[in-house]
Design goal:
- The complex is a heterodimer of chains A (96) and B (130).
- Helix content of chain A is 85%, strand content 0%.
- Chain A contains 4 helices and no strands.
- In chain A, helix 1 runs antiparallel to helix 2.
- By secondary structure, chain B is mainly alpha-helical.
- Helices cover 75% and strands 0% of the residues of chain B.
- Chain B is built from 6 helices and no strands.
- In chain B, helix 1 packs across helix 3.
- The longest helix of chain B is centred in the middle third of the chain and has 25 residues.
- The chains are: A mainly alpha (96), B mainly alpha (130).
Chain lengths: 96, 130
């Protein structure tokens, strides 16, 4: 939501908004993760291979972000949001 | 019920790679890609959320560091949003148990739909048609 507000309401360019969003997530995400770990909810055997491969994904994605026009990045993010909206609405329809 | 099958490690590597790529490319959305994949593999919701977080917190830190190193933003850019963010988190924590899950899902869907239409430029196109 922060990234959307920064780009749509504050007119911030996508890369700058992405950076702010990434850092903003860390304190709350880190605290939640610690609590989940304490409650034994994290499946670390599944998370670790995903995490290692994810590092390679981040490197590739970050490199791509530097190459693509910011408008395209915004549009791609918008497309991701539309996909999520469709999934949420479908879930509402099924449970209704 | 989740049962670890042969090839699961490779599959989770692929999921992690996809989530990391989205996180690095778009600055958000990696967890939103990873979570449904974990759920589809049979993880109960709480474990899926927790496991997705375990993947995304370090990946977000890595992505943020790369963005900082690349000069795409400065840490000071974050400061104006911190007080509001903390207040919002407190308000959200207060409101969440008091709102119906269906209402929340509906509101979130509308927000995603509107934001998606605006960011893709489709909202302008649709407005032009009517």
């Amino acid at each position: 939501m922060l990234l959307v507000c920064l780009t749509l309401l504050r007119g911030m360019d996508h890369l700058r908004a992405s950076g702010v969003n990434l850092l903003f997530f860390l304190p709350t995400g880190g605290l939640s993760l610690w609590l989940h770990h304490r409650h034994g909810l994290v499946r670390w055997r599944l998370a670790l291979p995903a995490l290692l491969a994810g590092g390679a994904g981040v490197l590739l994605g970050s490199w791509g972000a530097g190459l693509l026009p910011q408008l395209l990045l915004s549009r791609l993010f918008g497309a991701l949001l539309l996909g999520l909206a469709a999934r949420q609405l479908w879930g509402l329809k099924k449970s209704g | 019920m989740f049962v670890q099958r042969p090839g699961s490690a490779a599959r989770f590597c692929l999921y992690g790679f996809a989530a990391g790529a989205v996180c690095g490319l778009l600055g958000a959305g990696g967890g939103l890609v990873l979570l449904p994949l974990l759920r589809r593999r049979g993880l109960p919701p709480a474990q899926a959320h927790a496991t997705a977080l375990a993947v995304m917190v370090p990946l977000t830190a890595l992505s943020g560091w790369l963005y900082l190193r690349g000069g795409r933003f400065a840490p000071a850019d974050l400061l104006p949003f911190l007080p509001g963010g903390l207040a919002g988190a407190a308000a959200g924590g207060f409101l969440l148990p008091r709102l119906s899950p269906r209402l929340l899902q509906g509101l979130f869907s509308v927000f995603l739909l509107y934001s998606g239409l605006r960011m893709t430029g489709l909202l302008g196109l649709l407005a032009g048609l009517f």
